[in-house]
Amino acid sequence: MIAVVGHTDLTEDAHGVVRAALRTRLAQAPAGTGALVRAGRGLPQVYGRAAREAGRPLTVVLPAEGAVPAPLPAADRAAAGELLLLAEQVRLLPYDPAVRDTVVAADERLVGAARTLLAVWDGSPSDGSDATAHLVAYARARSVPVEVVWPAGAARTGRAERAPGVRRGRPAAGLVGRRPGTYGPGGRDLRP
Length: 192
What we know:
The chain is of the alpha/beta class. Helices cover 33% and strands 17% of the residues. Strands 1, 2, 3, 4, 5, 6 and 7 form a seven-stranded mixed beta sheet that branches. Helix 1 (12-27) links the parallel strand 1 (2-6) and strand 2 (35-38). It is globular.
């Protein structure tokens, strides 16, 4: 699997050049290599479209509360719907999409599951709203190969797009540190 992380504040014009660069990279991957992305607007949509155009099977990760998908922030719902239409597989991962720290933890799980990480990154440090540099360092520390994708014409708006209601802080009880899977009452893992 090839996962993607990156800046959430790409300009609309940047979407096209980033999509073309991602499509080219995905097309060069060995046959059968899949693409992995956490559901959301912006870069996840761009990556999903690039994966489809490159003929790569797409796996989309949705937040979960127990064994059911958790509600996404309103701003991400239409994009997630498009990604679900593009996806060949959907995985549930326990995290609270309204809490930044759990979103970063979910991205760390994606990085850990990837054979390669594509980082749509301009090289800037992480800050309170963008964790791209952290995720690149996280991948490198775990020997996950990282390919930085920042083509000519890529640009940022200068303000990370945080969905309304997204906050920093503690997650809802039981959503971080749990493996993806099927959970029953009380958070009990139901997998054999």
